[in-house]
Design the sequence.
C-alpha cells in the first residue's frame, strides 16, 4: 500500500470534473483556506460555517472572524455561477494534467451531498462508526460518526481522531431566477454543518484503522489501529462516542489508552487488518510486510494471539478480508500478485487456494456482503477485477467475471456497497474515486445511443457511474446505514459525499 509524504494539503474537493481557469469561481466544495496552527481541523461546505472541536463550538460570522481564537480557520461560502464559460469534462486517464493556472471545479448538480473536513495532517485510513440513529436513513440534515488517524511529519504528533459530523445539509444549486434579497435567507442555522471531535495521542503513523462492525450491538466500539512501527493498538471508543451525545459527560482518562496492544509482529510494518463480521466477541486478523498473518481472538478475560502465523511466501500482505458468510475463512491480497483463500482451522497454516490476480501487487481486496462468492481486487498497475470464488477450484486458472483498466495509477481502496450488490467504489492514485455498477449491460440500447451521441464517452466503460476527484485519495468507505453515502480520505482531508447516481 503506497504512502504519501506528510503534507498539510488543504486544496479543495472537486469532482465531475470541470476544468476552469484560475480566474473562475473557486471549487464548489472547497475553497482555499488560510489556517493558523490548526489543532484539529476545519469543517467546510458551501452552505454553512460552523466549526466544533473537542466539545467547543466556534461560531463564525460571514467574514470568518471571531476574535482570532486559536485553531480557528476561515470557512468561505461559495456561490455557483451559472453564467461562467461552458466547462469541459476532466477525466484523469485521458485529459491533460492541470496547469499551474487551472483548478478543478465540482459540478453541484450531480451530488446529493458534498462536504469537506480539513484535517491537521493527511490521513491514510478511516472507518465509519456504527450508530443507533437507524438504518436506511435518507433524510437531511444527516449525521454520522467517523474514526481516522494521522500521518504527521513527527511521530509524536500523531493522533487517533473520532468525530461526529452533524447537520450535513443536502447540496443546493442556486437558481438564476432567485431574487438577490433571498441570499441572506440561506443562513439557516439548521443547515450549517457541525463537527465535534475527540482525539487520542499516538506515537506512530497509522497505516490502517478498522472499527468492529458489531460496535452498536455489543456496546463496545472496538477499534484497531495498525501502526507503522508494527504494533496494533486496540481501543474501546465507546466513551468518545458517548461524549458526542451526552451533555456534560467527561471521558475517563483511561479511555485514551489502548485496552490491548499486539506486538507479535515485532517492529515489522504491515497493512492488512480486518475484524470478523461474524464473530461478535472480537476476532482480528493482521498481516505484515514479511507475509505473516496472525489471528487474535478475544476471550472472556483477555486477548490471545496465535503465535504460529499463516504463511505462504515472504510477499507483503497488503490487505485482509474475512469471509462474509463463513467465520473461519478469510482472503489476503499480496505483493506477489496473488489472492489467497485461507481457513483458520488449518493446522498447517497454509492457504487453501492461491490464484494469480495480477502481474503487479494486489493492493486491496473487498468481499461482497450481499453475494458471498464475489471478491474484488485492486492492483498496483491501476486495474481491478471481480472474482467468482466458486471458480477457485485449484485446477485451472480462473478468469475474473469483470476486469477494468480505467485507472492509470495504483488502486488504493476498493469496496462493495454493503446495501447494493452490484455497486463498487474504487479509489486510485490518479486522484479519483470511481463508482461502478456491474449490473449495467454493455449492449443496453439507451447506453449505446448515449455513446454514439457523445464522442467523449466512446472509450468509457458503460458500467462507470461516477468520477469523484480528491487529491491523494487513500481510503474510501461506504456508510452502512445511509444508502449511497461515502467517506473518503485524501491529501485535502475527508470528503463526505453522496451522488445522484447511487
Sequence:
Amino acid at each position: 500500500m503506497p504512502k504519501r509524504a506528510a503534507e498539510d494539503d488543504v486544496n479543495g474537493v472537486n469532482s465531475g470534473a470541470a476544468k476552469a481557469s484560475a480566474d473562475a469561481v473557486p471549487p464548489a466544495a472547497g475553497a482555499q483556506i488560510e489556517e493558523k496552527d490548526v489543532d484539529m481541523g476545519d469543517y467546510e461546505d458551501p452552505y454553512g460555517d460552523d466549526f466544533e472541536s473537542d466539545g467547543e463550538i466556534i461560531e463564525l460570522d460571514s467574514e470568518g472572524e471571531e476574535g482570532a481564537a486559536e485553531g480557528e480557520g476561515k470557512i468561505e461560502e461559495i456561490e455557483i455561477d451559472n453564467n461562467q464559460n461552458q466547462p469541459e469534462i476532466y477525466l484523469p486517464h485521458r485529459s491533460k494534467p492541470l496547469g499551474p493556472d487551472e483548478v478543478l471545479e465540482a459540478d453541484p448538480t450531480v451530488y446529493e451531498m458534498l462536504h469537506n473536513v480539513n484535517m491537521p495532517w493527511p490521513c491514510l485510513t478511516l472507518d465509519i462508526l456504527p450508530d443507533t440513529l437507524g438504518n436506511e436513513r435518507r433524510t437531511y440534515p444527516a449525521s454520522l460518526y467517523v474514526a481516522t488517524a494521522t500521518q504527521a511529519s513527527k511521530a509524536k504528533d500523531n493522533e487517533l481522531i473520532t468525530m461526529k459530523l452533524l447537520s450535513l445539509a443536502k447540496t443546493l444549486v442556486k437558481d438564476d431566477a432567485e431574487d438577490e434579497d433571498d441570499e441572506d435567507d440561506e443562513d439557516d442555522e439548521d443547515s450549517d454543518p457541525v463537527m465535534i471531535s475527540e482525539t487520542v495521542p499516538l506515537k506512530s503513523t497509522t497505516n490502517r484503522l478498522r472499527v468492529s462492525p458489531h460496535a452498536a450491538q455489543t456496546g463496545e466500539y472496538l477499534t484497531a489501529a495498525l501502526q507503522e512501527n508494527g504494533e496494533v493498538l486496540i481501543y474501546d471508543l465507546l466513551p468518545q462516542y458517548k461524549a458526542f451525545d451526552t451533555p456534560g459527560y467527561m471521558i475517563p482518562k483511561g479511555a485514551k489508552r489502548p485496552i490491548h496492544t499486539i506486538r507479535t509482529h515485532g517492529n515489522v510494518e504491515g497493512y492488512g487488518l480486518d475484524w470478523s463480521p461474524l464473530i461478535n466477541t472480537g476476532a482480528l486478523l493482521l498481516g505484515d510486510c514479511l507475509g505473516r498473518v496472525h489471528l487474535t481472538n478475544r476471550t472472556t478475560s483477555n486477548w490471545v494471539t496465535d503465535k504460529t502465523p499463516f504463511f505462504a511466501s515472504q510477499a507483503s500482505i497488503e490487505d485482509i478480508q474475512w469471509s462474509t458468510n463463513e467465520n473461519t475463512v478469510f482472503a489476503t491480497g499480496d505483493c506477489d500478485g496473488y489472492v489467497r483463500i485461507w481457513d483458520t482451522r488449518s493446522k498447517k497454516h497454509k492457504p487453501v487456494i492461491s490464484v494469480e490476480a495480477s502481474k503487479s501487487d494486489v493492493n486491496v481486496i473487498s468481499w461482497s456482503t450481499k453475494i458471498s462468492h464475489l471478491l474484488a481486487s485492486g492492483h498496483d498497475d491501476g486495474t481491478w477485477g471481480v472474482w467468482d470464488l466458486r471458480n477457485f477450484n485449484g485446477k485451472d486458472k480462473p478468469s475474473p467475471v469483470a476486469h477494468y483498466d480505467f485507472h492509470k495509477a495504483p488502486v488504493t481502496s476498493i469496496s462493495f456497497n454493503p446495501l447494493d450488490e452490484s455497486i463498487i467504489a474504487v479509489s486510485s492514485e490518479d486522484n479519483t474515486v470511481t463508482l461502478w455498477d456491474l449490473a449495467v449491460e454493455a449492449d443496453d440500447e439507451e447506453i449505446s445511443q448515449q455513446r454514439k451521441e457523445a464522442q467523449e464517452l466512446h472509450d468509457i466503460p458503460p458500467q462507470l457511474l461516477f468520477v469523484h476527484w480528491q487529491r491523494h485519495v487513500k481510503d474510501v468507505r461506504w456508510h452502512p446505514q445511509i444508502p449511497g453515502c461515502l467517506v473518503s480520505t485524501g491529501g485535502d482531508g475527508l470528503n463526505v459525499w453522496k451522488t445522484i447516481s447511487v
Remarks:
- The chain has three helices and 36 strands.
- The first strand starts at residue 14 and ends at 15.
- The longest helix spans residues 445-453.
- Residues 484 and 494 are 16 Å apart (CA to CA).
